[in-house]
Design goal:
Structural class: alpha/beta
CATH class of one domain: Alpha Beta
Distance between the termini: 25 Å
Largest sheet: 8 strands, mixed
CATH topology of one domain: Alpha-Beta Plaits
Length: about 575
């Protein structure tokens, strides 16, 4: 028999037998219309598969738990709209349960505990409502703008253990696409120092090609502000969630948990650039400072410094720039090279093969124009590293060597580039040189203490060094700096929790990853094995071998970077307890 983890949706019509007893043909016609016009299209849109129909009910399988929950929400909201003008006695109302569990596959049908729990959740849902179990809530709560109400542990028929049930609160309606608003997300506490978010500067040039320039300028200002230890600066990734959207400054500030917001615009024409910028105290709803700069393009770095200095000296406490360590930037000699680097960085952040290749082409062009531009070399190394990680290269060994060569060039040209030291720390860990990794990581952190990529890497390295409790704190700080952080941050946090012997927390972190690979399932298997949940451990062990049939514990541990042998032994223990093959 085939077994797999999957998302299961179970739905039925409330009072269907009563409605059929009153008017069979009308009830059946209404059900078919709802299915044809709303339910089946929603299932198809979210890549679901109808396993079977049971009169007024249905069982649907989804490859993604996020898609399953979003489909349930879309259907219930759609049904509410369709019922708006229907008399109460003729309204067709659904109950839906969504579960994430292990199933047995027999041809086109599915069976098992995962299906049974979904059916029990459906029965617990109120008319027009959705019930999910805890693992579903944990998986989707940071990915969908929904509010969940905890219904506690519930004993249900034919299930040996109690189920922790959550009700999805559907009103008021919230936007789709993963956007979170102040109404649907718990307010973040303000940091204990001035906190600020720099929103993407608007491109006023009328030329879409200049988006690279305005985005790059925004990123440079974020980077410059991040170097001040007296500030809490939201990362680029979270700030750029708002690019091109009509937003209220107050809502943005609440969403990101900051007091101040910077807005601006850029108009570039030929060799001239106009930058307007304003600093807003969101809590007081007032402008603190505003300025306009009309300069030659060659003066753009002076403009960046003036903006940064004005912000840090205007914030409460009159933070003096001179009292903080600042990197002495070595500026490019060729402004065209600078623009190529800006465009390359923006493309790199998109994290797909085509844009990665174009980013490398632009970075090569920047280096050709200005061979001594250290930042171009450091970002070429970073982009090549992305190529290597995702296996987008023909010769992995040659690409890895090229990463090292570019980093050494960048380091020789400018020892004060935080990105150089960040990537060097990562490369050193991959080579098993923990001492060199620690040195470069500390240099990166000193140069830019607010960069979420540097901060999360601090937590990752501390975990490898055998200090996971400290690592957890740094990773959580990175998540606060970047509320819209990449999913890989959960991977770092889960590893730190496991190494710290916090197994339930480790499992919770890894379950937040939308599309887990074999390594994530391996950690889940080990975590559940350590807390004696044999069924869950075995299920995830099967997923490991399904995705990586040649998996062995020893070969897998050989890819990890623990400094302490006791940490490696501890990881080995969990994997073997889960039933994974030793060698």
């Amino acid at each position: 028999m085939e077994r797999r983890l999957t998302a299961i949706l179970s739905a039925d019509v409330v009072g269907y037998s009563r409605m059929m007893g009153g008017e069979e043909e009308g009830t059946l016609a209404a059900l078919k219309a709802h299915r044809k016009e709303l339910i089946d299209p929603a299932i198809a849109e979210h890549h679901g598969r109808i396993v079977k129909l049971m009169g007024d009910g249905m069982l649907v399988e989804f490859p993604s738990i996020v898609e399953a929950v979003q489909c349930a929400v879309d259907v219930q909201r759609g049904m509410a709209e369709r019922n708006a003008d229907v008399p109460d006695g003729r309204k067709m109302v659904l109950r839906i349960g969504v579960n994430l569990g292990d199933i047995i596959v027999d041809g086109d049908d599915i069976y098992g505990d995962g299906v049974n729990v979904a059916a029990r959740l459906e029965a617990l849902a109120e008319p027009g409502g959705i019930c999910v179990q805890r693992d579903v809530r944990n998986q989707v709560r940071d990915k969908l703008p929904l509010v969940f109400e905890d219904m506690g542990e519930v004993e249900v028929k034919n299930i040996a253990r109690p189920i922790r049930v959550f009700r999805v609160l559907l009103e008021p309606a919230t936007p789709r696409g993963g956007e979170t608003t102040a109404a649907t997300k718990s307010a973040l506490a303000l940091p204990d120092k001035p906190s600020i978010a720099v929103l993407p500067f608007a491109n006023m040039s009328g030329d879409p090609e200049q988006e690279f320039f305005s985005d790059g300028l925004t990123e440079d200002i974020i980077t410059a502000l991040s170097r001040f230890r007296g500030l809490f600066v939201i990362s680029r990734n979270s700030a750029f969630v708002y690019k091109g959207k009509a937003t209220k400054v107050g809502d943005v500030a609440k969403d990101l948990g900051v007091q101040y917001v910077v807005e601006g615009s850029v108009r570039k024409a030929g060799n001239r650039v106009r930058v307007t910028v304003q600093l807003i105290d969101a809590a007081a709803d007032r402008h603190v400072w505003a300025e306009r700069y009309d300069r030659d393009l060659e003066d753009i770095f002076a403009v960046q410094d003036e903006i940064t200095s004005a912000i840090v000296t205007t914030l409460p406490g009159r933070i003096e720039a001179a009292t903080h360590e600042r990197a002495e930037r070595k500026l490019p000699e060729n402004m065209a090279a600078y623009e190529y680097v800006l465009a390359g960085k923006v493309l790199h952040h998109r994290s797909n093969r085509e844009d990665n290749e174009e980013a490398l082409r632009l970075l090569d062009r920047a280096i050709e124009l200005d061979p001594k531009y250290a930042h171009a070399h450091s970002w070429k190394a970073c982009t090549l590293g992305q190529t290597w990680v995702h296996d987008w290269c023909e010769d992995r060994e040659a690409t890895w060597e090229q990463v090292g060569e570019e980093l050494q060039i960048a380091l020789a040209l400018d020892d004060n580039d935080s990105d150089v030291h960040r990537v060097l720390a990562a490369v050193s860990i991959a080579h098993g040189d923990h001492d060199k990794a620690t040195y470069h990581q500390q240099r990166a952190l000193n140069l830019n203490p607010n960069d979420d990529l540097i901060v999360v890497q601090q937590g990752e390295i501390l975990t490898w060094l055998g200090r996971p409790e400290e690592g957890i704190e740094w990773i959580q700080k990175a998540m606060r700096l970047n509320p819209y952080h990449p999913e890989r941050f959960w991977n770092h946090l889960g590893r730190a929790y496991y190494t710290a012997r916090l197994y339930a927390e480790a499992a919770d972190a890894f379950k937040r990853i939308t599309a887990p690979d074999f390594s994530h399932h391996a950690f889940l298997a080990a975590s559940y094995a350590q807390i004696e949940d044999e069924a869950a451990a075995k299920a995830h062990a099967r997923e490991v071998l399904k995705r990586e049939p040649a998996f062995t514990v020893e070969s897998y541990l050989g890819t990890l970077h623990y400094k302490q042998e006791s940490d490696r032994d501890h990881h080995r223990e969990g994997l073997l307890k889960a039933g994974l093959p030793a060698a």
